Amino acid sequence: MKNWNLYPIFLFLTLTFFNSCRDAEDDIPEPVPTPPALAISSNVEEVTFHTTDISLFWQVYDAQAPNFSNAAFVDNYFLKGSDELEALYQLKQNSFSKMGNLLRATATHDYYASIRKNTLQIAQETPALRAALNQLKYLYPKAVFSDVTFTIGALSAGGKILSDGQIIIGSEFFSRAENSPTKNLNNWHQQVIRDKAYLHAVVIHELIHVNQYHSALENNVPFTQGASLLKMALLEGGADFLTDLILGVYHNDHLPAYADPIEAELWAAFKAEMHGQDYSNWLFNGSQSGDQPADLGYYIGYKIAAHYFEQSLDKSAVIRQIIELHDPEAFLAASGYADQF
Q1: C-alpha closest to that of 38 among 60, 9, 66, 2
Q2: How far is Cα 207 from Cα 30, in angstroms, rounded to an integer?
């Protein structure tokens, strides 16, 4: 077993996408005394997209069907795949150790079976993914990039960024086929499971977080340690906004239908809590959001960033400020967003 420094700098996408059926551990990053050096490059051509874990998953799946042993998936998949897959397993043991149970349940078994072809075709997305990275580089010339590993997990982690900047994507969230049966999945999964068009979006979203983290380290300022609700919402919503700007894909596009009609009310409630560090009403609350959509903090952060961008004459400066976000209060004031209400 490898010895991992498992400091996940974010569970980004968002945690609207990533925080289903929350495991016992908190997905908010914990401070580490000396963060490891980032495994990053400024050259898009040096980025590698790894997909071998997907093939391995289906090999174990075929060998285990129809009984699907939990132990077999742990021993022959999670602990025998890539280093990144094992790192993700160490972080998500509560759900990943029950992979067999998930596949023996009819609703989730049928969903996984329906996405097999799409997951095996992810390797073919490399040219389009690299083109998206080049678009990020065009908008933010200082951009850095890290390798991306595509895995298949237990519908509990759409993505992680490890402490060295390596990105892990849970491909099962972004491989829905036209005939994928989702109506018997839980409500949260029905909301956030997407087709492969959103695969590119989650990669860009995560890379924006890598750049936000890189900027914090370069400037010797805290990233998420002790961050206010406002800062967290701006980090997440800002990444959503830039992803939409680059790709024309807003991967939390289920939120505006609920939130737009009550935006002023939501802002008033958010404003009352934004200086604190309790995120539970706004972020990372996929399993406890009640009758309203989860993670409305993403929506607020997106709206602030979008308003700033639309009002500013210097669009490039706003893009830089979203990525190099060190003073959330100043960003909010400059955006003029609050002046609307």
Answers
A1: 9
A2: 20
Given a cut of 70, is residue 32 above it in pLDDT?
no
CA–CA distance, 154 with 240 (Å, rounded to integer): 24
Asked if 322 and 241 count as a contact pair (C-beta separation under 8 A), the reply is yes
- What region does 145 belong to: left with phi over 0, alpha with psi -120 to 50, or beta? beta
Scan for tokens 């005394």, then name that residue.
Answer: 33
Question: How is 77-94 classified by DSSP, letter by letter?
Answer: IITTS-HHHHHHHHHSHH
Contact 122, 199 (CB under 8 A): yes
pLDDT in tens, 278-332: 999 999 876 565 678 888 999 999 999 999 999 999 999 999 999 999 999 999 9
CA 247 to chain centre: 16
For residue 147, give the DSSP letter.
-
pLDDT digits (tens, 9 = 90+) for 50-90: 999 999 999 999 999 999 999 999 999 999 999 999 999 99
Separation in Å, CA 340 to CA 97, 264, 268, 301: 48, 9, 12, 15
Peptide bond into 33 cis (omega under 30): no
**Which is higher by pLDDT, 132 or 2?**
132
| CA 304/CA 169 separation, integer angstroms | 27
Most distant CA pair in the chain, distance: 60
Nearest CA to 63 out of 53, 48, 73 is that of 73
Straight-line distance from the first to the last Cα atom of the chain, in angstroms, rounded to the nearest whole number: 55
Residue 179, token pair as written in the block: 């005939």
Q: Contact 128/51 with Cβ under 8 angstroms?
A: no
Alpha carbon distance 271, 296 (integer Å): 13
The pLDDT value recorded for residue 310 is 97
Q: Would you state the pLDDT for residue 13?
A: 37
Stretch 133-139: mean pLDDT = 97
Nearest alpha carbon to residue 203 among 99, 283, 133: 133
**pLDDT (tens digit, 9 = 90+) per residue, 265-282?**
999 999 999 999 999 999
